[in-house]
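Morning run. Coffee first, then this:
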Amino acid sequence: MTASTWTDDRIDRLKRLWLEGQTADQIARDLAGGVSRSAVLGKVYRMGLSAGRPARPAATPVRQPETRATPARQPSTLSRPSPKDLAPERGLASVLSVRRGQCRWPIGDPRRDDFSLCGRVVARGAFCGMHAAVAYRPQSDTARKLKGLACLS
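And here it is:
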């Protein structure tokens, strides 16, 4: 029979460090001698210590300056776009010919030979301004509004 890694001294030390708010990795390094982070977490779980641990204050996230391009202006109404708006700037693109920076909005039925992608210049994500307005909607939109937008393409 082999001696247990968890001696009474190590268990007391584990309890004290855990309740002080140390991480399992820090405790494992402190205990050393073949005790891994996973072993510490397992012992904490088996001893029921995880429920009694004081909450650590969350780190304040550092705000990074925003570097994204300004998104395309969102349409304020659900009116249908004019035929001029639907005309692609660079012509339609196929699945094989679409390039980075071209809108990937599907046009037509994918099972037909005339299926294509929009091909306009990308304004947001993978879509041109008009298609991004349809694809990226705030969560507060109702199903009725979304149904009206589905009729745009």
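Residues 8-52 form one domain. Good start to the day.
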